[in-house]
Amino acid sequence: MDKLEKPLDAWRDELSDEQFHVCRLGGTERAFTGKYHADKTPGVYHCACCDAALFDSEAKFDSGTGWPSYYQPASNSAIASRDDFSHGMHRIEVLCAKCDAHLGHLFPDGPKPTGLRYCINSASLKLKPRQ
């Protein structure tokens, strides 16, 4: 996958204030406030920055945390990760593999079949419903 790189000012011009804060500055939306936390529409969730397919609604589950949660990405190449030591703890940050947008974090407390929970900010996503 070819990387999409843009100056921060270009992202600022293209994204809403919330999307820019979350995706480009590593922010987090408040729990239970995001557009997709309780959405059950069948479809594919794409990156709000670059439109890469990230998660399928088939892998979405209600984690009770207030953020959209998925037990696996749409493909193994869709997601990148790195260690995050902010806020005095160690977490795994989840990024869009194409544009490095901050999406959320990965936790080892999800359901079968993977046991993983991709805890993702709604602001980093846009849903394309299935026809």
From TrEMBL:
GO MF entries: peptide-methionine (R)-S-oxide reductase activity; zinc ion binding
Entry cofactors: Zn(2+)
Catalytic activity: L-methionyl-[protein] + [thioredoxin]-disulfide + H2O = L-methionyl-(R)-S-oxide-[protein] + [thioredoxin]-dithiol
EC number: 1.8.4.12
Pfam families attached to this UniProt entry: SelR
Keyword presence, Hydrolase: no
Domain MsrB: 8-130
Coiled coil region boundaries: none
Cofactor comment: Binds 1 zinc ion per subunit. The zinc ion is important for the structural integrity of the protein.
Keywords: Metal-binding, Oxidoreductase, Zinc
List of catalytic residues: C119 (nucleophile)
GO biological process, one term: protein repair
One cellular-component annotation, GO: cytoplasm
HAMAP family named in the record: MsrB (MF_01400)
Name the UniProt record assigns to this protein: Peptide methionine sulfoxide reductase MsrB
Species: Pseudomonas cavernicola
Lineage: Bacteria, Pseudomonadati, Pseudomonadota, Gammaproteobacteria, Pseudomonadales
Gene that encodes it: msrB
